[in-house]
Amino acid sequence: MIKSLIACAFLMMPIVAYSDDLSKVHINGKTFGVYGNYNQGFAYTFNGHAFTPDDYSFSSKIFKIIEGDGKTYVITVDQDDGSASAPQYRAFDVTGDAFIPSALIGQGIGDHLDGAWSVIGGDAVATIQKDDGSSATTFHIRDGLVHILTQGRDNSLSGPSTPPGGDYAAFVAGMRLKEAFHSKAINPILRKAFPEPVYSDVFKLAEEDFGSAFQAGNQGSFAFLSQPHDSRDRYIAIAIQPNGTAVAIFSSNGHHEVTYGNPDPLIKMRLQREIP
To answer: What is the pTM of this model?
Structure first.
């Protein structure tokens, strides 16, 4: 464990070494540490300096170290008590002899980090997406200050209005489900297959997890998607046929399946095979 963590640290930045519990890290001969517990709160120290936040969390530990553009940041992650709580992050600028902490970012239940932390133009940058896919918020942190940019869901449609050759199944093959919903050629047939508000529920599901890519078969192209990943809770199997019709089996919650688009028995059987 210790060897793997040290190796990881040297790949990221050769001047860093981790302790095995990620509560302490050494940067250029200076020590960053996380101390405390749920009952007494947490304290953060660096090179003889200390920071004690006013907020209390269930746990706190070192999450990642990032550097670039002459800046080095330690990212910590806090978790509230309970499995439904979302992690929150804090960026400490440890470039100098003292450190500069930021406020906690991320707070909604189920919100998740989209991609990875990075340094852009000297800022520590992270994007956190709403669990329902409705928006994503990008945080830029510099000198302890947090600048926020929130972007709504991308509803723009792209690509041709009809597939080349008119074969919808061949056109959609290889697309992830989210891409299909954003395609000018495929979005209209998906809208036709699902009544409101079912269409909105399926769209949100596609935004949360791209799912499998469409695979071409004799009856059309088929794709499966579930969220949480590979669960039997919320899932959908969709078939796009060559003539531009869509059929699907959709469970909005807890394996309550509904069939849409009146598939014939062979296609319905093929759809059911897509569901793990």
So the answer is: 0.56
Cα separation, 107 vs 208, in Å, equals 18
Interatomic CA distance for residues 196 and 30, integer angstroms: 58
Q: Where are the beta strands (DSSP E) in 47-201?
A: 49-51, 59-68, 71-79, 88-93, 100-101, 112-113, 118-120, 123-129, 135-142, 145-152
The 3-state DSSP class for residue 162 equals coil
The partner residues of 108 in beta bridges, in order of sequence, read none
- Which residues pair with residue 18 across a beta bridge? 25
117-127 per-position pLDDT tens digit = 999 999 999 99
What are the beta bridge partners of residue 25? 18, 32
DSSP state of 176: B
Q: What is the pLDDT of residues 70-86, one digit of tens each?
A: 999 999 999 876 555 67
The residue assigned the tokens 């199944």 is 169
Secondary structure letter of residue 178 according to DSSP: H
